[in-house]
Amino acid sequence: MRIVVLTGAGISAESGVPTFRDADGLWEGHRVDDVATPEGFARDPDRVQRFYDERRRALHAVEPNAAHRALARLEGALGEDLLVVTQNVDDLHERAGSMNLVHMHGELRRALCGACGARPTWEGDLVQRPSCPACGHRELRPDVVWFGELPYELDRIEGAVVACDVFVAIGTSGAVYPAAGYAALAGAFGAHTVELNLAPTLADVAFDEVRAGPASVVVPRWVEGLLA
Ligand code: APR
């Protein structure tokens, strides 16, 4: 049985990583235009670098939760038949043990060189404009996909979505495309579609099955049901 799991900020919420559109979400404290667009970066690069430096540093204080761990357990049982596509830029899936994983919106723990295109893993801050390990130029930015930029590995993701038997969306509001269209695409190709989310979202109409609740409860329960 081939499964594609799409995760969003909601899977990391109980680990202490703020979501985007909930009441106390990230977009309450910052304007998307200022910190999540190429134009915002061009306008005030230091503000954008500091915003992601702060989020990168915050990763040291959070841990994967039971939902991340349940998906890693599922990969242990299904191997290549499970692909996790995450919109999240945190590293909690990796730290829980997931390996078949695509970060379609990039990663906080990676930098992107504006001069040579290299994507080195990166732990420290970028605001001091360190030099690129590959080309030496000092044009590193966070390797995070901003609004108006192309997400990563779209062909690989769409290939997996149209071929899967089960598509599961976890902790995502269905507000941002192309991720928001994957449930309907999977369903159109015959997959059983499941939404595991704290609250039913606007995208519910595209799901065969909706289980509401915190990810740390509903995801392990769903995985145990599969592995039973
Ligand atoms: N358990 C499960 N779901 C939760 C929990 C939880 N503990 N807490 C919140 N949620 C749900 C919310 O109900 C909401 O539907 O997670 C979803 C979070 O939605 P968003 O904050 O919009 O995050 P996401 O869907 O990942 O945003 C997509 O938008 O801002 C851009 O690039 C950014 O990757 C992000 C994309």
Bound molecules: adenosine-5-diphosphoribose
Rg is 18 Å
Query: How many distinct helices?
Result: 10
Derived structural class? alpha/beta
Number of strands: 8
Q: Tell me, what's the shape?
A: globular
Largest sheet properties: 6 strands, parallel
Fraction in helix: 25-40%
- Strand-and-helix sequence, N→C? EHHHHHHEHEEEHEHEEH
Q: How much of the sequence is in beta strands? A: 15-25%
CATH superfamily of the largest domain: TPP-binding domain
- What CATH calls the topology of the largest domain is Rossmann fold
Distance from N terminus to C terminus (CA atoms, Å) equals: 14 Å
What does this structure look like?
With 228 residues, the protein is an alpha/beta fold. The protein folds into two domains: 1-17 and 63-105 and 151-228, Rossmann fold; 18-61 and 106-144, 2-Layer Sandwich (SIR2/SIRT2 'Small Domain'). The chain has helices at 10-13, 26-29, 32-35, 38-43, 45-58, 66-78, 92-96, 154-163, 182-188, 215-227, and strands at 3-7, 82-86, 101-103, 106-113, 140-144, 166-170, 192-197, 209-212. Strands 3-2-1-6-7-8 form a six-stranded parallel beta sheet, sandwiched between helices. A two-stranded antiparallel ribbon has the order 4-5. It starts with a strand and ends with a helix. Bound molecules: adenosine-5-diphosphoribose. Residues 8-10, 13-14, 19-22, 25, 87, 105, 171-173, 175-176, 197-199, 201, 214-215 line the site of adenosine-5-diphosphoribose.
